[in-house]
Design goal:
The complex is a heterodimer of chains A (201) and B (336). Chain A is mainly α and 201 residues long. Chain A is built from eight helices and two strands, in the order βααααβαααα. A two-stranded antiparallel ribbon of chain A has the order 1-2. The longest helix of chain A has 29 residues. By secondary structure, chain B is α/β, with parallel strands linked by helices. Chain B has eight helices and 15 strands. The longest helix of chain B is centred in the C-terminal third of the chain and has 17 residues. The N and C termini of chain B lie far apart (48 Å). Classes of the chains: A mainly alpha (201), B alpha/beta (336). Chains A and B meet through helix 3 and helix 4 of A and strand 5 and helix 3 of B.
């Protein structure tokens, strides 16, 4: 069974529910190295993205991703807004102007999203950002890994951020003191990738 | 942990309720856009042939940015959630509402989220056929070494930089010239801050960082970014000296040069303490043979209820002096 726009609506509903459930945990993580609002931004962004796709009565997969991107961006701003909006626009381009796509192509969306985030945010692997979860996941996807392996790569990447010193964004202000704490953006990224895996299973 | 005490109704609505209050307080200076509640535009100032100055950034720094919207300064601003960049759309809507066919200059502090969102706003404006340029303010001496000026944060020096660029636009200079003036003003503006206590976000109501009683942090940023040194709270003169030493070492002014001075409260520090700091600033500048052309003292760029202050010096030349003196009339600032 192909992955349809209805499946995509369900995916965004799941993403919104997941971020709502994880909000306080993400805020607490961010409280250690940032200003404690990452969970709020992700909850607001995914809720708006989900509302935007739910409101569509027709359109292609790309139309749905584009609506989600716009919804997320207008709800959030900050850093996560442009990064996830760009990621979702790229996912839409990868999914294409078609009503459904083969489930086996799901990992390509992860590759496209990671590329979008890197282009917009100009971060590199090891900068202690969301990219430290997205890039390992994308590399696994590109190598033909299963979604189970892609999620494992994202989780490992997020865990590895604990050993890194932040050099970008608000967390960069801490320098050495940022070591020992996982990056909240990488942690939420691994959660998002896990929801994609569940939806494409 | 006990929540901090705030006069709010709901942390999630704090920014929008503040904007409603500002619009009600300053109807002769600013207006809101129906389709963009987080954009504020100047009632007077925007006009055909004039470069539009659009400023913006996170909320929580009032009167930055809203207070500087008015004739002779910024034509519009877009604000985001507390300490978070606005998304591109309010900036685009604001720019569309005030542009006069001569291009738009986005002017804001150098923070990653602001850069990404305003870059996207510029891309969207270009798609509408409107020329958009960006100048980042980078006046916070404490946030990167002198050789890496482009990595520095933009803080209270915004006031002088916005003022100079706003005057240039009001004098109907073309976009390239307004951009040049903004870069020039930024390059000659230096700020350093000190924090005595933490602020707290309306949504979390917990201190954003931990600064024990009796301690101060010199070089602290306006979102609580750590500074260059933490230590026991010293007398005002010693604190002013430490900040001025850092600024003057970079400014390299010659005796007889003129400066503009801003002694800024981060929110909780009262005028009494700001004037005590300024007394020392005036003494030190006189001793260095520098002339003070203008002094601003008060809350100009705040960090919610953070206690602390910043000192800004703008190293003037004839052009900057003329631009600072040019009249402007904003909701929370007036000159000339």
């Amino acid at each position: 069974m192909d992955f349809t726009t209805d499946d995509l609506k369900a995916l965004f509903a799941a993403l919104a529910a997941r971020m709502k459930a994880e909000r306080d945990g993400l805020c607490a993580l961010d409280g250690v190295i940032g200003d404690a609002d990452h969970g709020i931004a992700m909850e607001q962004g995914m809720a708006a993205a989900s509302d935007a796709v739910a409101a569509l009565t027709e359109g292609t997969l790309q139309d749905h991703f584009n609506a989600a991107a716009k919804g997320f961006l207008n709800a959030v701003g900050a850093s996560s807004g442009p990064l996830y909006a760009t990621a979702l626009l790229r996912a839409g381009k990868a999914a294409g102007p078609r009503p459904a796509m083969p489930r086996t192509e799901g990992p390509l969306l992860i590759v496209a999203m990671a590329e979008g985030i890197q282009t917009r945010g100009k971060a590199e692997l090891g900068h202690k950002t969301m990219l430290d979860a997205w890039l390992p996941a994308a590399n696994a996807a590109q190598a033909g890994a299963s979604f189970v392996e892609i999620v494992a790569a994202a989780d490992a990447g997020a865990a590895a951020t604990a050993d890194m010193i932040a050099t970008l964004g608000r967390a960069a202000r801490l320098g050495e003191r940022s070591r020992g704490h996982r990056d909240p953006g990488a942690v939420s990224a691994a959660m998002i990738i896990a929801e994609f895996a569940r939806a494409f299973a | 942990m006990t929540e901090t005490q705030k006069l709010i109704n709901d942390g999630n609505r704090a920014v929008d309720e503040m904007l409603a209050g500002i619009a009600a307080a300053h109807p002769h200076h600013v207006a809101r856009l129906d389709h963009a509640p987080r954009a504020i535009i100047a009632r007077h100032g925007p006009r055909p042939g004039k470069v539009a100055i659009v400023v913006g950034g996170g909320s929580g720094h009032e009167p930055t940015f809203l207070g500087y919207v008015g004739k002779g300064l910024a034509d519009a601003c877009a604000v985001g959630n507390v300490f978070a960049s606005p998304p591109p759309q309010p900036a685009v809507d604001a720019a569309m509402a005030v542009h006069g066919g001569a291009g738009v200059l986005f002017l804001y502090g150098n923070y990653a989220g602001d850069v990404m969102n305003f870059d996207m706003a510029s891309e969207l404006l270009e798609m509408e056929g409107i020329e958009a340029r960006t100048v980042l303010t980078t006046d916070d001496v404490a946030s990167a070494p002198a050789g890496e000026r482009d990595k520095r944060r933009g803080v209270a020096g915004n006031v002088f930089i916005f003022k100079a660029a706003g005057a240039a636009a009001d004098l109907m200079m073309p976009l390239d010239e307004v951009v040049r003036v903004a870069h020039h003003a930024n390059a000659r503006t230096y700020t350093m801050g000190v924090a005595l206590s933490a602020c707290s976000l309306p949504q979390t109501r917990r201190p954003n960082f931990d600064l024990p009683a009796g301690q101060m942090e010199i070089g602290m940023g306006i979102h609580g970014e750590p500074g260059v040194r933490r230590g026991p709270l010293l007398p005002a003169n010693a604190v002013a000296d430490e900040m001025l030493d850092a600024i003057l070492a970079e400014m390299k002014a010659d005796p007889g040069d003129e400066v503009a001075v801003l002694v800024n409260s981060l929110g909780a520090t009262p005028l009494m303490e700001l004037y005590i700091l300024n007394a020392r600033v005036a003494e030190r500048l006189a001793a260095a043979g520098l002339k003070v052309h203008v002094t601003l003292v008060g809350p100009y760029c705040t960090s919610l209820e953070m206690a602390g202050a910043s000192i800004t010096l703008m190293h003037l030349d004839d052009e900057l002096k003329r631009l600072l003196d040019h009249p402007c009339d904003c909701a929370m600032f007036r000159a000339g």
